[in-house]
Amino acid sequence: MSDGGAPSPAPSPTLDDVRAAAGALAGVVPRTPLVRAGRLSADLGCEIRFKLETVHHTGSFKERGAYNLLRQLTPAERTAGVVAMSAGNHAQGVAYHAGRLGIPTTIVMPRGTPFTKVERTRAYGATVTLEGETLSEAEAAAHRIAADRGLVFVHPYDDARIVAGQGTIALEILDGWPEVDTLVVPIGGGGLIGGIALTAKALRPDVAVVGVQTTLYPAMAQAVRDEPPALPGGATVAEGIAVKRPGALTVGIVRRHVDRIALVDEAAIEDAVERLATVQKTVAEGAGAAGLAAILADPDRFAGRRVAVVVCGGNIDPRILASILMRGLVRAGRMVRLRIGIVDQPGVLARVTALLGDADANIVEVSHHRMYSHVPVRMAEVDVTVETRDGAHVHEIVRRLENAGFRTERMRDVD
């Protein structure tokens, strides 16, 4: 989860700044693919292409802005080094490119940051300091370190050099797909959409730019309407865009250049992660899937349009991904848990499993309850998790069991 930082006094970058960044990134940060999404386009009634920022060395778009800022440091600043605050993609982008440029780097992370993220960042050559319980506290520590040691603080989004670097994505999209009419971009602090929007509107004012935030962290949507921040907050699968305070620089850019901001809930983001993995064969983190989530949540708004969706990162925890994929199977009726009442005597459980096999249900797990059940003492309950073809297949399985005299209940909860 990301908090914002101190407002940046830097002026908004220009199209020339973005073009200069593109020239500097050439041969250093690779141009990412813009791939067609045939099945999803057919399903959703619009032509979708995904801009896969997941293929960068560190797995996210953050490398663009990080390198663009680092390359512009003076020799004295490079010698002194840089410090950044992040618990995720920004940390890795800064650490990786600072290491390539020989710039000493300190990354401040909250104490609760997962070990894998800490070790991955250290592997790029950065010194990792764990400070504070929240990102706000870690950020305050990073600013203290910058002041005490004379280091350059590398802001995750509220810096014109960062914004210009992220804007190179728009140059690549417009060059690779001149017919595009809509750009859908996740919003955290606003550096990504800020760079893309100012670039796209400078080159193609007719292109619609749609930002996407989670309903739990709509900070940018509130800021552009001059509303005080009122964030529901909480745990989100899209932690990469869970920003409590957007940038002063980026709010102004979004006000001028972004056509609208869509808010998506957790269910839509989960659905998008699952569809990207199973249909598009692309692994995306929650924030990276937010653009597709906006289309899934409101397909009529995109009907008939040519939509480029920025998949901004692919660094999802494998356990979270596994859980989302399994929950997707449950929602689709392809994995179901049945509670079956049986007489507690030899051979009955074998009859149940035979019926399931005859119905082409693949048994994944069986749990047999005798002692901890409210059924009569001569009865028992069996919880069976089975893999099925679809919802219709589930109904057929239940029908067969009940016709054979076994009371069967489909369990709606997911353990």
Question: Could you explain how this protein is built, in words?
Answer:
This protein is α/β, with parallel strands linked by helices and 415 residues long. The chain folds into 3 domains: 15-60 and 165-326, Rossmann fold (3-Layer(aba) Sandwich), CATH 3.40.50.1100; 63-153, Rossmann fold (3-Layer(aba) Sandwich); 333-411, ACT domain (Alpha-Beta Plaits, 2-Layer Sandwich). Helices cover 42% and strands 19% of the residues. It has helices at 15-25, 38-44, 62-71, 75-80, 89-101, 115-123, 135-149, 160-176, 191-203, 219-224, 248-257, 266-278, 290-297, 318-331, 348-358, 391-403; strands at 34-36, 47-52, 82-85, 105-109, 127-130, 152-153, 182-186, 208-214, 260-264, 306-311, 335-343, 362-369, 379-387, 408-411. The strands form 3 sheets. It has a 6-stranded mixed beta sheet with strand order 1-2-10-7-8-9, with helices on both faces.
Short structural description:
This protein has helices spanning 15-25, 38-44, 62-71, 75-80, 89-101, 115-123, 135-149, 160-176, 191-203, 219-224, 248-257, 266-278, 290-297, 318-331, 348-358, 391-403, and strands at 34-36, 47-52, 82-85, 105-109, 127-130, 152-153, 182-186, 208-214, 260-264, 306-311, 335-343, 362-369, 379-387, 408-411. The chain is α/β, with parallel strands linked by helices.
